[in-house]
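Now read these lines:
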Amino acid sequence: MNKSYILPLNKDHSKEIFMLQKKNLRDFGSNIWRTEELENSIKNSIFQGFIFSLNKTINGFCFFKKIDDFIEIYSIFVVPEFRNKGVAKNFLDCCLKYCKENKLKKIVLDVNETNFNAIKFYKKHNFIFSGRRKNYYRNKESFNDSFTMLRII
């Protein structure tokens, strides 16, 4: 029987998350979190988040940072075979629950202007466009802008 879970992120997940990113370079380009960066950020409580685990294998992750009265989501990723199955929505639900428990007022994130599926997903979940960051995402030979999106809670 397949067992899937959304679990709290911890530093022991860092290496597997790094490998998952490397395996899915098409989605990440050169914007990969290295194992050491993740370990230190989680250990020092800079990042918090969740993983999606199926049969003890990480197939998705979400991490964010609490800043003043809001959180900024740095990454939500789900492996292609588990997309459109509610995993990313579960990550958002966990972020919303965290915000409500901590009396936070909003969620902020940046999304690559070319990531149309993610933009559509966030709009569907009540995020609005709130700005643009020029040349925020580095690709192989160029840069893309970021759309900053916001959800008031």
